[in-house]
From TrEMBL:
Chief place where the protein resides: endoplasmic reticulum
Subcellular location: Endoplasmic reticulum membrane
Keyword Transmembrane: yes
One Pfam match: INSIG
Organism, as annotated: Taeniopygia guttata (Zebra finch)
Reported function: Mediates feedback control of cholesterol synthesis.
UniProt protein name: Insulin-induced gene protein
Record field: transmembrane: 66-84, 104-124, 160-181, 188-207, 219-240
UniProtKB keywords: Cholesterol metabolism, Endoplasmic reticulum, Lipid metabolism, Lipid-binding, Membrane, Steroid metabolism, Sterol metabolism, Transmembrane, Transmembrane helix
Top-level division of the source organism's lineage: Eukaryota
Gene this protein is translated from: INSIG1
Topology in the lipid bilayer: Multi-pass membrane protein
GO-annotated biological processes: cellular response to insulin stimulus; cholesterol biosynthetic process; SREBP signaling pathway; SREBP-SCAP complex retention in endoplasmic reticulum
Biased composition (Low complexity): 40-51
InterPro entries: INSIG_fam
């Protein structure tokens, strides 16, 4: 009898151990199951995050382009008005007609150029690995715009003995604008490039009779135009840099 009882006790213990071992999953099976689920979950989350970042980056790019286009078109109207109305200090009755007396395509072209230049400046800074950190605030940008408008106004208001003196004065003012509000090698290089390209385009348009300048002294245009283009490129570049602050990082496809 004792032998039978011990045998029965051992059999019940063995059966209970088998039930416990079958009910508790082994660590290896748990790891296998977890590993089987992780690739799909991680790929889905990475795809969702990449799509979201792409949408945010594209939306911010469109917003910056629209703002730069509007700023460029508006500045073209204002500066063209300053050039046309050289001796006007108040707003006369014919100001509306003189505002739209220029060709209709000038503001859209200037707006498009401003959008391209404003997007190009922060892109070149990022490519060169030299982020622009000098006077990065909107107050400085507004002062830069005011100085640029003053330089353009000076080109129409100041009277010198000859155009060479006027051109040298505006060149000094333009370099002073770059030194005061930019001081970057990329800004200087892009400003010179923009001045050269814009001058060539202007020469081409005037040569083909699209419009003309009074008293041209540099081939078909005025000699101080490259200075205006240079200072305008620096100004729009600072606006584009300021708009690019805090933008989401551009997504990379691995």
């Amino acid at each position: 009898m004792p032998r039978l009882e011990s045998c029965a006790w051992s059999c019940s213990c063995a059966a209970r151990g088998e039930m416990l071992s079958s009910s508790v999953p082994s660590p290896s099976l748990a790891l296998v199951g977890r590993g089987a689920r992780s690739p799909s979950t991680s790929s889905a989350s990475s795809t969702a995050s990449s799509t979201s970042s792409t949408l945010n980056w594209s939306q911010h790019l469109v917003q910056r382009s629209v703002v730069l286009f509007v700023v460029g078109a508006f500045m073209a109207l204002v500066l063209n008005l300053l050039q046309i109305q050289r001796n006007v200090t108040l707003f006369p009755d014919e100001v509306i007609s003189t505002l739209f007396s220029s060709a209709w395509w000038v503001p859209p072209c200037c707006g498009t150029a401003a959008a391209v230049v404003g997007l190009l400046y922060p892109c070149i800074d990022s490519h060169l690995g030299e982020p622009h950190k000098f006077k990065r605030e909107w107050a400085s940008v507004m002062r830069c715009i005011a100085v640029f408008v003053g330089i353009n106004h000076a080109s129409a208001k100041l009277d010198f003995a000859n155009n060479v003196q006027l051109s040298l004065t505006l060149a000094a003012l333009s370099l002073g604008l770059w030194w005061t509000f930019d001081r970057s090698r990329s800004g200087l290089g892009l400003g010179i490039t923009i001045a050269f390209v814009a001058t060539l385009i202007t020469q081409f348009l005037v040569y083909n009779g699209v419009y003309q300048y009074t008293s041209p002294d540099f081939l078909y245009i005025r000699s101080w135009l490259p200075c205006i283009f240079f200072s305008g490129g620096v100004t729009v570049g600072n606006i584009g840099r300021q708009l690019a602050m805090g933008i989401p990082e551009k997504p990379h496809n691995d």
